[in-house]
Design goal:
The chain is mainly beta. It folds into 3 domains: 65 residues, Immunoglobulin-like (Sandwich); 75 residues; 106 residues, Immunoglobulin-like (Sandwich), CATH 2.60.40. It has 1 helix and 21 strands.
Length: 263
């Protein structure tokens, strides 16, 4: 008896990883057996076999398909932080696979830097190393910012001459001693203004104009002078402390020209 050889056909299409098993198509009545990597990235082999009968011999066919890596969805959030002297990193907000996988099976993010100091870091970046089923993501640039909005705090402010005596209309060199603290450091301390409680001129005999001359960052010449009919003169010196980020604070101290030694 003459048997006919069956013409078996099988097909399997390559695809990107989805977490589902690749399916193959074959001739009616064929049994398909899968081998290799048919769910994860790799090569899947589908073998279709049809049993013989009285008129047909057993037949089989083989097809292969490739599962290629998928793209993960990765969200990294840059930061704007207030300076606190500690290193900071961007936040890995989410790592999502195509089939609900957990982070560990999708891949890992690497952050390029962990800045500490005040500044705008516009060349920071992150990259992603995909696990077996996911593509890598090359370095992606982000901008991180550490800012300082806190002004310096004065810890002391005084002068070497809190009282000027005698009121002989002479200029007296006054030196201010100032200390301030700041998280990022104080960049400057200086006198920014000096005022008098009395007019500069016109107070009576011997009164001389030009009573205030700032001579340096923390030095000023003040005239030892006051109105004869008043209660004494008060010079108010305003000192500014500024930090490297441009934040500034002020504080005042006074120099007194008394009416008399009994004040």
């Amino acid at each position: 008896m003459l048997q006919r050889t069956g013409q078996q056909r099988v097909g399997a299409a390559s695809d990107v990883y989805t977490g589902s098993t690749i399916g193959a198509t074959a001739s009616t009545g064929a049994m398909i057996v899968y081998s290799g990597s048919c769910t994860n990235v790799g090569t899947c082999t589908a073998t279709a076999t049809t049993a013989g009968d009285a008129n047909h011999a057993l037949s089989s066919a083989v097809a292969t398909a490739q599962i290629t890596k998928a793209d993960a969805t990765v969200v990294v959030t840059p930061y704007v932080k207030e300076y606190d002297g500690q290193p900071h990193t961007a936040t890995v907000t989410s790592i999502s696979g195509v089939n609900g996988e957990t982070v560990a099976t999708v891949g890992a993010v690497t952050l390029s830097t962990t800045p500490t100091n005040v500044g705008t870091y516009s060349t920071d970046s992150w990259s992603f190393t995909g696990a077996a089923n996911y593509n890598d993501i090359a370095a992606t640039v982000i901008t991180n910012t550490i800012k300082d909005t806190t002004a310096p705090v004065f810890t002391s402010l005084s002068t070497n001459a809190p009282t000027l005596w005698p009121p002989n209309h002479k200029m007296v060199a006054v030196t201010v001693s100032a200390l301030a603290s700041d998280l990022v450091g104080v960049s400057s301390l200086k006198i920014i203004n000096v005022t008098s409680s009395e007019p500069d001129n016109g107070l009576g005999d011997g009164d001389t104009a030009g009573d205030i001359v700032i001579t340096g960052p923390l030095s000023v010449n003040l005239r030892a002078e006051r109105a004869g009919k008043g209660n004494g003169r008060i010079y108010t010196i305003t000192v500014e402390a500024r930090d490297a980020a441009g934040n500034a604070s002020t504080k005042t101290c006074t120099v007194f020209v008394p009416k008399s030694q009994g004040k």
